[in-house]
Amino acid sequence: MIENLPKEAARQVAFRELQGEVPGMRDEASARRPTKTRPTKTLDGATVSAHSPGTPGGHERMALLALENLHLSFGGVAALAGVSLEINAGDFFAIIGPNGAGKTSIFNCISGIYAPARGRIVFDGRDITRLKPHQRAELRIARTFQNIALFRGMSVLDNVKIGRHVHLRSGVLACGLYYGRAAREEQAHRAIVEREIIDLLELQDIRHKIVGTLPYGQQKRVELARALALDPVLLLLDEPTAGMNAEETEDMVRFILYVARVKRLTVVMIEHDMGVVMDISDRVAVLDFGKKIAEGAPAQVQQDANVIKAYLGEDVEVA
Hints:
Elements: H1 7-18, H2 27-32, E1 40-41, E2 47-48, E3 63-74, E4 77-88, E5 92-96, H3 103-111, E6 118-123, E7 126-127, H4 133-138, E8 141-143, H5 156-161, H6 172-177, H7 181-198, H8 216-229, E9 234-238, H9 246-262, E10 266-270, H10 274-280, E11 283-288, E12 291-296, H11 298-302, H12 305-312
Parallel strand pairs: 5-10, 5-11, 8-9, 9-10
Antiparallel strand pairs: 1-2, 3-4, 3-6, 6-7, 11-12
Helix pairs in contact: 7-8
């Protein structure tokens, strides 16, 4: 894995992955992974293109999410320095860049964990910059985390059901007593989770198992299921294939593409696997030291001089 290589070697490998030139590291996964030009067989036997769902006929789509000149600092370190992005409804949008570029800081600003020092975040025409995280969840913004953030002592089903919390209408006392309307409501939400999420992500056989006993790849899938249980409009995926082997990566990509199509989601993804990024993204933004240095179609970003410099550095003449 890139994370285990020396810093300079990691930069070289990441760039070569960006260009699609890494022999031997992802060949098996790339041979099976869905691509832009090859339809993928989905879970229901149908075929789906790697393109994200969009408006038929190529009509212009409105910006569902807009980041306007975001600034975020920790002490004297600028995590974000004037980043602006527009993500259209139905986009599959990827954010890439070297470690420490500010990618996860963007997600933390969108989901309300961090408050930017300057700038605005506009979601579906509404300024959400100062909203609290639970208020953003109520607007149907869901996310996964780079490091798995599940309740390890709870079952898969109970973890996924937590994603339905924002849809509950019964009060704390009624839910605690688990009687009458509160009991019926909880049972209805459980049925939704079982029918629409557990089955969709093929978690039936492990739904009653304790999450902490599951393999890493299955835990990542449970975290995706919990995010989907919120019934999101916008799904933020923070390195969904990090730490996975080739087979697990292929499965995760297949699930992500399938749910994006079935649920018509707008997806924003942070990912270090450049094969995945280039295969499934509609647009890509590249960050470096808290600044956006490039944005465009995957093929366009691959050839951008600033991106090449960020991944490989530049030659310095020594007198």
